[in-house]
């Protein structure tokens, strides 16, 4: 992969678009885009004001798709049932267990035209770095730069580094990162500070983030660990000092789900889309058979368009067989 050292690799997959950023030949960021609706970031859409939330301050709006959003502030004189044009400022957040946080919206500027927010490809192209689109018949550049390992980290929340590991836990209120490892507390905390900063950028983790470092009694040690975090934190954020119990809080702008939230919200869907990617890259001729867990089979058959796209892209007939003894992430292709 020496021919690509800096920029973005982009892959338009079946049901999922993927991007990986490389700096000096190393993976520094991954992004995943699934199913764009009217509530994508920076979209300007018409909605119906459904109900008051906090009187005179915020309320619920319903988009044409049926998706709801939290509108704040409320335009003066807006009454329930009225139409209002809004701008999406944060996408909806799907959480494990089927819970979901509504998208956030604000009143659109007067005269604003209806528009769909930028796609993943639009966003990375606007950044000014080189963008190379890769196809399934080409070498798997994403995997060569560590895509599969990054996706495993996103799905499990476990990120290993030299001398320790991070366990990233998603909660409705915040993202919590626990530091663990066999090293002495000061050395472990220093290495973890770099790993935390890199992980926040790699997986687009924003919002409120709590980091539980080892307890460090010396203030100078806590200050040094904070400095290491600052040196490696590429995105804009605010943070507290590390307190005597090892806790540091980071706050960064959140405009949508992190890669961890995307991958963990529906693990059956994540396994299904990963299998489609693998199947699209499978060499050979003749029919493709996918032996999968019944839950994955259900995903593959609804929507049928995914299997149709796989058949069209590979030029092969595709069949699916559900087998109860196959793990969700253990689909087989033959």
The secondary-structure element order is: EEEEEEEEEEHEHHEEEHEHEEHHEHHEE
Bin the helical content: 25-40%
Helix tally equals 9
Low-confidence stretches: none
User: Which geometry do the CA atoms define?
Assistant: globular
How many separate domains? 4
Side by side, the strands of the main sheet go 12-13-14-15-17-16
Overall pLDDT score: 94
Task: Tell me the fraction of residues in β-strands, as a range.
Answer: 25-35%
Instruction: Report the count of strand segments.
Output: 20
Q: What's the alpha carbon Rg, rounded to whole Å?
A: 22 Å
Structural class: alpha+beta
Largest sheet report: 6 strands, mixed
Summary of the model, kept short:
With 334 residues, the protein is α+β, with helices and mostly antiparallel strands.
